[in-house]
Each structure stands twice: as structure tokens, then as C-alpha cells.
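Bug #77: duplicate submission created two jobs. Keeping one. Sequence:
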Amino acid sequence: MSEKWEFQDALKTLESRWTAIDNLHLEIDSELMGSNLQYEASFCQHEEQFNNLKKEINKKLWSASYREKSTPKLDIPVFNGNYNNWVSFKDLFTDAIHNNSSMPNSQKMQILKTK
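Kept job's structure:
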């Protein structure tokens, strides 16, 4: 996963599944009246895993959002096929796009296709 929407989708799925698990836990816990310590310990362990996963996804979501906002909007000219313009186009594209390690390869390819 590298795109913002992928992290949002994963977070939404995780939270939806946890809601179902939590509702079942409430039903089971009311039946057991807190008498099964092994069950309680297991649930607490899974709840901690859920919270850790949620934290990691939120960090990556924030990072993807920040990257999206902090990526400068560059106006790279369209290469018109003129050999005399090739070197300047290639240098600009290489410096601004190709060497940008924070940009996914798919995004680089999309930019190149449109230029």
C-alpha cells in the first residue's frame, strides 16, 4: 500500500471488523459475567493488536497525506519531439520526477506519459 485511498480503505475495513468483534465481545462477556479470565486476557491481547494496527495505518495515512500536500506542483513542459529541446526536458524530468524517491513509480510513469 502506498496510496492515500488504500490506507483509508484499510482503516475503514479494520474499524468495521473491530466494531463487529467488539459487539460480540459485549454479548459474550455479559453471558460469562467476567468469569473467564483466559477469554478476557485473549480479548485484551487482540484489542491491543487492533490498536497497534490502527496506529500504524494512521501513521502511514498521515504520511501519504503529508507527501501529497508537500509534493510541489511542477509545470514540466510537454516534450514536442524536437531534438533541440530533449536535453532540457530530460534534465528537468530526471531532477524533478525520476530522482524523487518519495514518489511511487506508477505516479512517475503517469507523469511521463502525459508529457
